[in-house]
Design brief:
The chain has 827 residues and is mainly β. The protein contains seven helices and 73 strands. The protein starts with a strand and ends with a strand.
C-alpha cells in the first residue's frame, strides 16, 4: 500500500509562540480503514490510536473515532470546531484514503463508492472544512495532519480519469508550515510495522524536549530517508515567524510565597543545652513571628538571603558563602529547633528540576524568571543577564528529582561558547543557541562564524581538530559587521558575513596593498600591507566606496534600490526567491539579489548582489524537487513543462517556447539561486500563442448552445460566462477552456469552430479604460468585492479573495484593447 501524508500548521493572526503549560490543547483524531467499496487499509486505526496515546501524554484532550461515514465525519468535525473556541491549541489528525480533484483535497469516508470523478465533491469531505472551522474558532495554534493514501483507490473504475494521484498543492498562509511525507508527486511508504513509515517517525520525535516543530520535522525527514533507502524524502514548505514546541522545557514559575511575614532573628537567645542533643552544626526553628538559623551556635538568620523551595526554605550566608536548606519550613511553625541541611559551600548558584520545569538560585534568591536558556545535549546552558554569568546545569535531563545542586559557572565575561562533533556545531551567545541562524566559513583550521542579527563575527579556534563535543569559549572578532581577510603565498581569503567570497572577486595591486572588487556587489575592499602579511592571520579589511555603487534597504516589506544615489525601485520587476528578493532593472538589463530580504527589514542600507547584466539571463532554485524559475524578474515556473535529462532538468516555457537546462537539478536541492543554461530564448507572444483551433465545434440558437468535442456533445456538463459578445466555456471533465467567438450574434444554429484557450490555471483576462475582467473555469471572478490589486512594475497583480489566488496581468497599461490574454497564477 502506498500512502501520502501532509501536515499543515496554520496560525491565526497571532504570532507563533513558545507554548506554556496553561494553554489548553484539543485534538480530533479519525482513523478510517474498513472501506466497503475500496481496498481496506492496514494501519490507519493503529496510527489513530498511537497518535491518541502520544497527544494525551503531551497535554491534549483527545476526541478519537474510527471507521466513520461521511455524515459521522462531518458531525464530529463540526463538534470539534465548536469545542475548539475554548482552547488555545487545536490539532486534527486523519488516517485513511484521500484524493484530490479540481485543485482540492478530500478525505474519503468508509461507505463511499466513487464511480465517476464528479461524485468526489458530494460523497467525500473536503480537507479544508476543518481548516475553516479552526480559523473561525480563533485558536492561537492549529495543526492539521492528514495521513491518507496517495493512490486513488477508485481510479480504475472511472471511464476517464485525470492524473489524480497525490495531493493538490495547499498554499501555506503567513505564519504556517506544510510538511509532506514525501516530495510532491512522489509516493510514500506505509511501512512494515504497525504504523506508517512517516507517522512512526513522527511519533518517535514528538516527545523530544525543546525541539521546535521545524526541528521535529527535520529529525523525521532524516529517519524516513534512512529507513526508505532515500526513496522517500519528506518535504516542508514554511512561512513560520516564530517557534512552536510539542514538548517544551519550562523554566520554573515564581516561587511559593509564605502566608506569614518572614522575620529573621538578629540575636542568639537559644538555650545551648536544649540544642546540643541535635548533634548538628546548623539548626533552625520558626514560629508565626520570627525564624532562627544558627551555625555553630551563632545566629546568622538576619544576614542571609533566602527563597522558598516548595515547602522548604533556602538560605544563603554571604559572609561564609554557605547555602542551607530548612526542610518543611512552611509546615513547621512550632518553635522547635531542627537540623538544617548544608547544601553547598562556596557555590553561589544552585538549581533543581522536576518534570522538565527548573529553578535557578543566585545567592539564595530565585532568578528563574530572569534567565535565558538552551539545551546542550544532556545539559542545560543558562545565562543570567543581571550578573552577566553563564551556567551549566550538568546532566539536566537525567536529574529530574527536584533536589538542589550546584550549577557550574563557566563564564562571567563574554559568555560565548561552542561545541562540535562530526563538523556539526552548537553555538551559544548569552544562553541562546543560534547556530542555525549563522553563516560560517573555514579559515585554516578555525571556523569563522557570522551572526547577521547583531552583525557580530566570531572565531572558533582549532575547530577542525576539536570535534569532541566539549564546550569551549569562542572569540569575538568584531560586533561591527566587519570584513576580514587572511593570506598566504599571495593567495587570499576574504570573509563577508561569514562567507569566503574570494572566488567571486578580482584584485589590483596598490603598492604593497591589494584592492579587491566583489564582482556581484561591486563593493571594493582594501587589504592593507597585503604583500608583507602572508602569515594566515585574520585581519580587518577596509571597505571603499564604489563609483557604481548599488545598494538597498527595506522596511515593512517596502524596498528601495539606489544606483549611484538614484532610486530605481519603481523601474524594476521583482519576485521573492526564498528569503531573498530577485530584482530585474529593464533599463540596464541587470538582475540583482537582495539577500535575506525577508529578515532584514531594519531600513539599513546594504550592498546588492549583482547576478547578471544580460536580459536573457535566467535563474533557478529548487528544494525537494520543486523548482522556481526567474526570467527578467518574474517567477514563471508555473508556466513551464519539464522532463528529466539524467541528473539535469529540461524546462520549456509554454507561452514563449524558450528552453532551459537546470544543470545537476537533482543534486542541488538547497534552495540557492543559480544561473540556468539557456538553450533557446524567445520573447513570449502571450497574446496569441495560447489560442488554438482543434476538433471542437459549436452552434447556438435562442441563447442555448451545443459544444461538440471529438464527436461528443458536452455542453450539459460545462460552465460558461459572457465576455462581451463572446462566450467562455469550461469543461470540468477534461479541464479545457473554449472560446465561442461572437456568440451573441451567432444564434443561427450553424456549426462553427471553437477556439481552445490553453491558459495557466484556466484563467484569462481583458481590459479597457473602464477596468479589467478576469475569467476562470467558465466564471467571471473579478467583481470589485472579491479582488484586490497592486502594481508590480508594468504588471498588475490581482488577488482573488474567495480562492486565495493571485494572478499577474502582464503589461497591463499597454493592453487595454479588450483582447483576451492569459492571466498567470502566482504561486
Amino acid at each position: 500500500m502506498i500512502r501520502w501524508l501532509i501536515t499543515l500548521l496554520l496560525l491565526s493572526s497571532f504570532d507563533l509562540f513558545a507554548q506554556s503549560e496553561t494553554d489548553r490543547r484539543l485534538a480530533l483524531i479519525i482513523g478510517n480503514a474498513d472501506y466497503q467499496n475500496a481496498n481496506k487499509l492496514l494501519n490507519p486505526v493503529n496510527d489513530a490510536r498511537s497518535m491518541k496515546n502520544a497527544l494525551t501524554k503531551l497535554g491534549f484532550e483527545v476526541m478519537e473515532y474510527e471507521n466513520l461515514t461521511q455524515r459521522e465525519m462531518k458531525q464530529v468535525i463540526d463538534e470539534f470546531g465548536r469545542r475548539l473556541e475554548n482552547y488555545g491549541v487545536g490539532l486534527f489528525y486523519f488516517a485513511g484514503h484521500g484524493i484530490q480533484a479540481n485543485g482540492n483535497n478530500y478525505l474519503i469516508p468508509i461507505e463511499t463508492n466513487l464511480t465517476t470523478e464528479q461524485q468526489i465533491e458530494y460523497d467525500c469531505v473536503r480537507a479544508d472544512r476543518v481548516l475553516g472551522l479552526m480559523e473561525y474558532a480563533k485558536s492561537k495554534v492549529n495543526i492539521v495532519i492528514l495521513d491518507a493514501c496517495r493512490n486513488n483507490p477508485f481510479q480504475r473504475s472511472w471511464s476517464r480519469s485525470a492524473n489524480s494521484d497525490g495531493l493538490a498543492f495547499m498554499n501555506a498562509p503567513s505564519g504556517s508550515l506544510i510538511a509532506y511525507a514525501t516530495a510532491p508527486g512522489k509516493t510514500a511508504s506505509d511501512g512494515t510495522g504497525s504504523n506508517g513509515l512517516y507517522t512512526e517517525a513522527l511519533l518517535q520525535n514528538l516527545f523530544t524536549p525543546d525541539l521546535t516543530i521545524l526541528q521535529v520535522f527535520q529529525n523525521v525527514r532524516r529517519a524516513v530517508v534512512d529507513q526508505s533507502g532515500q526513496r522517500q524524502i519528506p518535504w516542508e514548505s514554511t512561512s513560520l515567524i516564530g517557534d512552536f514546541y510539542f514538548n517544551k522545557t519550562q523554566v520554573g514559575s515564581q516561587e511559593q510565597k509564605s502566608t506569614h511575614k518572614l522575620t529573621a532573628k538578629t540575636t542568639t537567645d537559644a538555650n545551648v543545652s536544649t540544642t546540643q542533643h541535635l548533634n548538628s552544626r546548623a539548626i533552625w526553628k520558626s514560629d508565626e513571628k520570627e525564624w532562627h538559623l544558627l551555625d555553630n551556635q551563632m545566629q546568622i538568620a538576619s544576614r542571609t538571603t533566602y527563597s522558598y523551595v516548595d515547602d522548604d526554605l533556602l538560605a544563603y550566608d554571604p559572609i561564609t558563602r554557605v547555602s542551607y536548606l530548612l526542610k518543611d519550613y512552611a509546615k513547621l511553625m512550632d518553635n522547635i529547633f531542627r537540623p538544617a541541611d548544608i547544601i553547598s559551600e562556596y557555590d553561589d548558584y544552585l538549581w533543581r528540576s522536576k518534570s522538565l520545569s527548573f529553578y535557578v538560585y543566585d545567592k539564595g534568591k530565585s532568578i528563574s524568571q530572569e534567565i535565558t536558556h538552551s539545551k546542550s545535549d544532556d545539559d542545560m546552558l543558562v545565562y543570567h543577564p543581571a550578573t552577566n554569568t553563564t551556567l551549566v546545569l550538568d546532566n539536566y535531563y537525567q536529574l529530574q528529582d527536584n533536589k538542589l545542586r550546584p550549577a557550574q559557572v563557566i563564564s562571567k565575561t563574554q559568555n560565548i561558547f561552542w561545541k562540535s562533533k562530526d563538523n556539526m556545531f552548537l553555538f551559544f551567545v548569552k544562553g541562546e543557541q543560534i547556530a542555525t541562524s549563522t553563516s560560517s566559513a573555514f579559515s585554516n583550521n578555525d571556523l569563522l562564524v557570522y551572526y547577521d542579527k547583531t552583525g557580530a563575527t566570531y572565531l572558533l579556534k582549532n575547530f577542525s581538530n576539536l570535534q569532541d563535543n566539549q564546550l569551549r569559549e569562542a572569540q569575538l572578532l568584531s560586533d561591527q559587521r566587519s570584513v576580514f581577510w587572511s593570506a598566504f603565498d599571495n593567495k587570499y581569503h576574504l570573509y563577508v558575513k561569514g562567507k569566503n567570497i574570494a572566488p567571486e572577486t578580482s584584485s589590483t595591486w596598490r603598492g604593497s596593498d591589494l584592492e579587491v572588487v566583489h564582482t556581484a556587489s561591486q563593493t571594493t575592499y582594501l587589504l592593507k600591507n597585503f604583500a608583507n602579511l602572508q602569515d594566515r592571520q585574520l585581519r580587518t579589511a577596509s571597505i571603499l566606496e564604489s563609483s557604481n555603487r548599488v545598494q538597498w534597504r527595506a522596511e515593512n516589506n517596502l524596498f528601495y534600490v539606489q544606483e549611484n544615489n538614484k532610486d530605481i525601485q519603481l523601474e524594476t520587476v521583482y519576485a521573492m526567491a526564498g528569503n531573498d528578493l530577485l530584482v530585474y532593472h529593464p533599463q540596464t538589463t541587470k538582475t540583482y539579489l537582495l539577500e535575506n530580504y525577508s529578515h532584514l527589514q531594519d531600513n539599513q542600507w546594504r550592498p546588492v548582489r549583482l547576478l547578471s547584466t544580460s536580459s536573457s539571463s535566467v535563474f533557478w532554485m529548487a528544494e525537494n524537487n520543486v523548482y522556481w524559475l526567474y526570467v527578467q524578474g518574474k517567477q514563471i515556473a508555473q508556466e513551464t513543462t519539464n522532463e528529466a535529462d539524467g541528473n539535469h532538468l529540461l524546462v520549456r516555457h509554454s507561452s514563449s517556447g524558450s528552453r532551459y537546462r537546470l544543470t545537476d537539478f537533482y543534486s542541488l536541492q538547497d534552495k540557492k539561486i543559480r544561473a540556468a543554461t539557456v538553450l533557446e530564448f524567445h520573447t513570449a507572444n502571450t497574446d496569441d500563442t495560447y489560442k488554438s483551433k482543434g476538433n471542437a465545434t459549436w452552434k447556438a440558437k435562442d441563447k442555448y448552445y451545443w459544444l461538440y468535442v471529438g464527436g461528443e456533445q458536452i455542453a450539459t456538463r460545462t460552465t460558461s460566462c459572457y465576455s462581451e459578445n463572446d462566450l467562455i466555456v469550461f469543461d470540468p471533465v477534461t479541464s479545457q477552456t473554449y472560446l465561442l467567438e461572437d456568440y451573441k450574434n451567432n444564434q443561427d444554429d450553424q456549426l462553427r469552430t471553437a477556439t481552445l484557450l490553453s491558459a495557466p490555471d484556466h484563467a484569462v483576462w481583458r481590459a479597457n479604460d473602464a477596468g479589467y475582467y478576469i475569467y476562470s473555469k467558465g466564471a467571471w471572478i473579478s467583481s470589485a468585492s472579491d479582488v484586490k490589486s497592486h502594481w508590480a512594475g508594468n504588471d498588475l497583480v490581482v488577488f482573488h479573495t474567495p480562492s486565495n489566488k493571485s494572478y499577474r496581468l502582464e503589461n497591463y497599461n499597454s493592453r487595454k484593447d479588450d483582447q483576451l490574454r492569459p492571466a498567470y497564477l502566482i504561486k
